Amino acid sequence: MNAIPVFLYHAVSCDPPAWLAPYTVSPRTFVEHLDMIADNGLHLVPLRQLVAALHGGPELPPRCAVLTFDDGYADFASTVAPLLAARGLPATLYVTTNALTNPGTPSRRGPFPSVAMLSWAQVGELDAAGVEIGGHSRSHAQLDTLPRKAVREEVGGCKRELEDALGHSLTSFAYPHGYSSRRVRAMVGEAGWTSAAAIRASAFSSVRDDPLWFARLMVRADTGRERFTLWTRGEGAPVAPFAEGARTRGWRAYRRTREWAGRPYRALPA
After folding, report:
1. pLDDT of 121-153, one tens digit each?
2. Which part of the chain is the NodB homology domain (predicted)?
């Protein structure tokens, strides 16, 4: 199968705040998705296997997929990790370091208001349990609107903080909001990340995809069973790589203009 589903989840919860609700699925829905993946003959593999193939390494097994989670919500430890462990399934968790807080308490700093985030201790426990930990910047900034110095601190600072805390090197990064540019992608590689997850208009990845800009399928609250079933069959979405579209370039220009004018576009609540 040329189309490789790399599923992107955010929160898995029954009671998310209103701003997060569109990007949240319930635990019951998440279990249904895991069942649909298995029932349709997909095999979940660690992200590192996909990245190795994108770098010209060993071929991927047929009919494979990857699970990824962004931001670092506390429900990953309480809900997602036990479900994955019970089934022996691999996943990658991209965390925003400025949002990590004390266990089970609402985030009062960083970019994610009124929602419980993982603590540094929990991230360490998940790492020790075999969950791949990746970087998602320090403050969840729109990297493609920032000057070089700020991008360097967001990308490299996140890597240093996580590696210091976990005691080993990390290689996987995800662009906040999915936003990047050619310059940002080059700087991510220079910082030592060997892969970087995008969204790419919600598309399948493939063995020809860019390891520093590979596509994912964002699973949202309104992702119905029919669409998810199509994704498990390698249907219903474009397949990367493909050129960046005019709409994406125009949207970046708009956000950059607002940033330079001192009126930044708010992708999340302040």
Report:
1. 999 999 999 999 999 999 999 999 999 999 999
2. 63-270
At 66, list the tokens.
């990857």
DSSP 263: -
In 3D space, the residue among 196, 191, 188, 195 whose CA is nearest the CA of residue 52 turns out to be 195
Sequence spans of domains, the chain:
6-243
On the question of pLDDT at 1 being above 60, the answer is no
Q: Which residues contact 58 (CB under 8 A, 6 or more apart)?
A: 49, 52
Q: Which residues of 209-218 are buried (b: 16+ CB within 10 A; e: fewer)?
A: bbbbbbbbbb
Q: Which residue has the tokens 């036990």?
A: 82
* Of 38-47, 139-148, 183-192, 250-259, the least confident: 250-259
Measured CA to CA, the distance from residue 250 to residue 264 in angstroms comes to: 16
CATH number belonging to the domain at 6-243, selected among 1.25.40.10, 3.40.50.300, 3.20.20.370, 3.10.290.10: 3.20.20.370
Q: How far is CA 218 from the centre of its chain?
A: 9
Mean pLDDT for 64-71 is 98
pLDDT digits (tens, 9 = 90+) for 6-19: 999 999 999 999 99
* SS3 of 37-98: HHHCCCEECCHHHHHHHHCCCCCCCCCEEEEEEEECECHHHHHHHHHHHHHCCCCEEEECHH
What phi and psi values does residue 227 have, to the nearest 5 degrees? -65, -45
